[in-house]
Specification:
Layout lengths: L5 H27 L6 E5 L6 H17 L3 E5 L6 H8 L7 E6 L1 H8 L10 E17 L7 H10 L5 E4 L5 H13 L4 E4 L3 H10 L4 E5 L2 H4 L6 E6 L25 E9 L4 H16 L1 H9 L12 H19 L5
Parallel strand pairs: 1-2, 1-3, 5-6
Antiparallel strand pairs: 3-9, 4-7, 4-8, 4-9
């Protein structure tokens, strides 16, 4: 027969079991009712760039599908590390999403302490896939890629190229071109694509590899020229812009993507809801029409292939960094 001293122990065990069931029940309820409040979409790029435009289109369309407002929060800085790290340490409840691109991968090797790993995030929606346009400054009388390269050869050390920091797509493209054309230049980092493009238009820098849709956002094309595109073939949106490949620089071929991520620890039912919602968003005629206005093609691939794609991109960038003598900053 149990003694009286066993009673508190039994009561404690019962309380623990009840608390566990209540917690699990609350968690299950939260997942079943998701989303029950506005969702935050962190964009680690400043307003005004193509990345910002894409994120706002998607946020608006996603809000329609899930029945909640999706609030875009621009958190640029440190080559997207500021915004990315903020999501890494946010609750894994599906209420904080991350918009990211290739920079999510390149930062892992370009930065000594990026503050995250690939396995910290899980993709829930693939958005875009496009090339970069190498824009040169008309203020320096550049009308073509050849003008830019010829100036670099004739004026060693005088070229300045806009980037969004070491390891960014713009930096990788410029390094590949510098190596292929045997020219040197100084990297001038900016917080985002809009600022980097403005520097080219003002003449503060000589060139910048911008997202494909940037020329449509920036009206002052009289101040810069679209010298080449990093795609395998000419873009249907910019048919008059030659590829680096046809200009004799095949190593500068490079394409980008953008996607939405959540914390990897986010409950599977919430991940499934977001993934399903994003599939609906990316099939929406409204979304596709707005992407077309930006000259940005939707992603052509499966979200299931993304983990392998990210792994391969990291390996490719490590090769790039080694070939170009880049060291983590």
């Amino acid at each position: 027969m149990p003694s009286m001293t066993d009673a508190p122990s039994r009561l404690s065990r019962i309380a623990i079991v009840l608390a566990t069931y209540l917690t699990l029940g609350a968690s299950a309820y939260a997942q079943d009712t998701y989303p029950s409040k506005p969702v935050r979409l962190v964009v680690p790029y400043p307003p005004g760039a193509v990345t910002d435009s894409i994120s706002r289109i998607v946020a608006n369309e996603l809000g329609k599908v899930i029945g909640q407002t999706v609030i875009v929060e621009n958190r640029p800085g440190a080559n997207t590390l500021v915004g990315t790290q903020s999501v890494r340490y946010a609750p894994a409840d599906g209420y904080t999403l991350l918009y990211q691109s290739n920079t999510l991968v390149t930062n892992l090797y370009a930065v000594k302490q990026p503050g995250y790993a690939l396995q910290d995030f899980k993709p829930v929606g693939m958005l875009s896939q496009s090339a970069f346009v190498f824009m040169v400054s008309a203020r320096h009388n550049f009308n073509s890629l050849n003008d830019f390269i010829s100036y670099g050869k004739a004026n060693p050390g005088k070229l300045n190229v806009s980037t969004i920091g070491p390891g960014s797509s713009a930096s990788i493209i410029a390094h590949r071109l510098g190596q292929a054309a045997t020219i040197n230049w100084t990297e001038i980092p900016y917080k985002g694509g809009a600022e980097a493009t403005n520097a080219v238009m003002s003449g503060d820098t000589h060139a910048f590899a911008a997202s494909q849709g940037a020329p449509l956002i920036h009206a002052n094309l009289d101040k810069m020229r679209m010298a080449a595109i990093t795609a395998e073939k000419r873009s249907e949106f910019l048919p008059n812009v030659p590829t680096f490949k046809e200009l004799g620089y095949p190593s500068v071929t490079y394409e980008s993507w953008s996607a939405l991520f959540v914390r990897s620890e986010t409950p599977a039912p919430i991940v499934a809801k977001l993934t399903s919602a994003m599939q609906e968003v990316m099939k929406s005629p409204s979304t596709l029409a707005q992407f077309k206005q930006l000259s940005v093609p939707p992603y052509d691939g499966s979200i299931e292939d993304m983990p392998a794609k990210l792994k391969k991109e990291l390996e490719d960038f490590q090769t790039d960094a080694k070939n170009q003598g880049l060291e983590p900053q």
